[in-house]
Specification:
This protein is an alpha+beta fold and 114 residues long. The chain has one domain: Alpha-Beta Plaits. The chain contains 4 helices and 4 strands, in the order βααββααβ. A 4-stranded antiparallel beta sheet has the order 2-3-1-4. A hairpin with a 6-residue loop joins strand 2 and strand 3.
Length: 114
Amino acid sequence: MIEVIWDLVVEQGARGQLELAFGPGGAWSELVARQPGFRGTSLLSDTRDARRFLVVELWDSEEKRAEALAARRDELSRFDAMLDGWTESRTELGVFAVKAQGTLRPIGKARRPR
């Protein structure tokens, strides 16, 4: 698996549009949710800079991502144009191979005593 990480700085007042675009049922989900090899997306907001976000795409492989994006080239172009109107900057930080995944505990679940 791979993770593709993007650093985005949104224009003043565009935070809501970005959150909707990358949220459940948003424009990004509509583009890639049903594509083979797509595993999910996380949108992270910077706790110190309200205009800065990280987008983390999770894919089975770089090849699957490339195939999926090529298959939706026209729609992706429109999505990118939409983002251009909301962002001051967009930088792909890199493509990272997943080497290990941590254990996540569901929110609200107490640890079992040993």
